[in-house]
Amino acid sequence: MGFMAEKKPEEPIGTSTRVRDQPSLTTSTGKSWLILGGLLSLIAVAVLVPLLSQQPAGVALFGICVIVALYAAMVVVRLNARPGRGMLAWLAAFMIGIALVGVICVGIVAATAGNVVLL
Questions:
Q1: DSSP readout, 10-42?
Q2: 56: domain range?
Q3: Are 15 and 70 in contact (CB under 8 A)?
Q4: What is the largest CA-CA distance in the chain?
Q5: For residue range 52-61, what is the model confidence (pLDDT) as tens digits?
Q6: Domain for residue 10, yes or no?
Q7: Helix, strand, coil shares of the chain as percentages rounded to 5?
Q8: Number of compact structural domains in the chain
Q9: How confident is the model at residue 86 (pLDDT cuts 50, 70, 90)?
């Protein structure tokens, strides 16, 4: 007698554990991405505004401008792109960009204020 592999039962729709199968990346309208992206942008800008007077000059201002531009890009994509995975992927990418720009700019200013040597 040979070894027989057990057949996996079918997963019910919407219960996949794969990240790319989440409803927010497959069937969402994008409204939640705009709300959360706006909240993230607001927090990032609120952190960068007090750092405008810190050295190196312009890093906080650059971060604010890029964050505003990335959020504006989110709004443009949401209003003009066809609904689906492509639009949602762009919204996710722009939101990740907002987070990265905020963290990097705050890190640069903090490292400079703390006399940390950057590469």
A1: PPPTT----GGGSHHHHT--SHHHHHHHHHHHH
A2: 25-113
A3: no
A4: 78
A5: 998 898 999 9
A6: no
A7: 70, 0, 30
A8: 1
A9: confident
